[in-house]
């Protein structure tokens, strides 16, 4: 009985880690405590300094801010914030940031609002750090994320992110690599 339970736990943790539901710092056998504490301190600092309220996010959108959904492509396509502007809400999955650098460079100088699933999702924070490394300066995070958007009753839509940038060439995931643009 105990052996079966242990196997079930290992399978669940393995599937969750593979699917991205948990990260290494969530696992009890990760021993680099100093690195984990430094990462946690960075995340706390970000939350205190760059968090924005729903009202603040909507005000920035009215002023021309770009909104980026940092959730997975599948989650984005199932539902995301509806904005009637160009570009509409972009999708830059937190684990695919490097694939999107080229198209995001066109947005430098504009205010950017990021969101993920909820307070417990770190992808928006990871994206914040990357955008900052590439010279973006006016970046905000709506920490309640998708859950906060739905709870607030904001208008949403479904479907893929089709914005290719302010250039004429079609967007190509494979050609858009970090080797083309360096911070």
Description:
The structure is a single chain. By secondary structure, this protein is α/β, with parallel strands linked by helices. The strands form 2 sheets. It has a 4-stranded parallel sheet, with helices on both faces. Strands 2-6 form a two-stranded antiparallel sheet. 41% of the residues lie in helices and 10% in strands. The protein contains 7 helices and 6 strands. The chain has helices at 2-19, 33-50, 54-62, 73-78, 101-105, 123-133, 145-152; strands spanning 66-69, 80-81, 90-91, 112-115, 139-142, 156-157. It has a single domain, classed as Oxidized Rhodanese, domain 1 (3-Layer(aba) Sandwich). The termini are far apart. The protein is globular and about 55 Å long. Residues 167-183 have low confidence and may be disordered.
CATH class: Alpha Beta
User: What is the β-strand count?
Assistant: 6
| Assigned CATH architecture | 3-Layer(aba) Sandwich
What order do the helices and strands follow? HHHEHEEHEHEHE
Question: Helix/strand/pairing class, anyone?
Answer: alpha/beta
Rg over CA atoms, rounded to whole Å, is: 18 Å
Proportion of residues in helical segments: 40-55%
